Amino acid sequence: MADRPVTKLDKSEVLAGLFAVWDDIGALLDGLSETEWRAVSPLPGWDVKALVSHMIGTESFLSGVSAPRPDVDVSALGHVRNDVGVMNECWVRHLAGEPGAHVLERFRAVTDERRVALTKLTEEEWNAPTVTPVGPESYGRFMRVRVFDCWMHEQDIREALGRPSADNELGGPAGRLSVDEIVSTIGYVVGKRGKAPDGSRILFELTGPLARSIRVVVDGRAQVVDDFGGREPTATIRLDGLQFTRLSGGRPMCAARSQSVELGGDPEVASRIVEHLNFVI
Q: Can you give the residue ranges of the Mycothiol-dependent maleylpyruvate isomerase metal-binding domain (predicted)?
């Protein structure tokens, strides 16, 4: 693992995004009624409390705390698909009976502990190879994955509560880092999942507060490029940036934003890529 090149990311930038999304989630949860804590989320089998319990569990694991022993065989539950899901469900069931306010206290306590530990990391520790959800990578890349995960769950909570993010909230550092993380996988999505043929030039045009252009060239393998060297794209996909993240995370689109997906160029290739955007485990 140590010989494999890893992604080196700016520690202060990633931590600013991670700490910001934790703050935003805390503010969003503050003062919720027990009924709101039980609001159904876009993720099968999970309400708002389950989403927060999952984040508590992941940060607890990263702090060296083992998952609590479940009262049932959680691997047999329909929405649990892998070992990560088993760990998540242990925490979800463990905290299900706790009042929402207590769950929020636990979320704030564990994230406060993580803030201290992460801030103390040296650059060597930040860039050190480790096991991550995206394979052997730097610890810093792992923390950008944490930004993505927490930010996606913030949007899940907002969907459950009917409190969608305003434009100025979407344009913050956590949203931008989350799109960065998606972009790092988009070559795999376009080439392997979307099966774009060799010679394809795919242009994603994201609109709204998360606006950016993402270009992917397929030349033996699919990879993100800065430009097409003056050539036109063979397929274009234009949609709202938040909706792009929702589809990439296997979620339904947000009702509060445009759900239009405009396809250009080769419609068959563009449509197939959109259908296979979901890459999360």
A: 20-158
H or E stretch at 41: none
Instruction: State CA 29 to chain mean position distance.
Output: 19
pLDDT at position 192 is: 94
- Dig out the tokens for 153 from the structure: 């769950």
Tokens 């792992």 sit at which residue? Answer: 142
pLDDT at 123 over 90: yes
The three-state (H, E, C) secondary structure of 189-243, written as one string? HHHHHCCCCCCCEEEEEEEHHHCEEEEEEEECEEEEECCCCCCCCCEEEEEEHHH
The residue among 118, 132, 88, 170 whose CA lies nearest residue 13 is: 118
CA–CA gap between residue 100 and residue 32 (Å, rounded): 8
- CB contact at 8 A, 149 and 14: no
212 pairs with which residues across the strands? 206
The pair of structure tokens assigned to 164 is 């969608």
The pTM (predicted TM-score) of the whole model is: 0.92
pLDDT at 91: 85
Judge contact between 215 and 190, C-beta under 8 A.
no
Q: Which residues of the chain form beta strands (DSSP E)?
A: 129-132, 135-138, 201-207, 212-219, 221-225, 235-240, 262-265
pLDDT tens by residue, 64-112: 987 666 554 444 444 445 455 566 778 888 899 999 999 999 999 999 9
Half-sphere exposure in the Cβ direction for 260 (13 Å, CA): 8
Contact of 185 with 134, CB cutoff 8 Å: yes
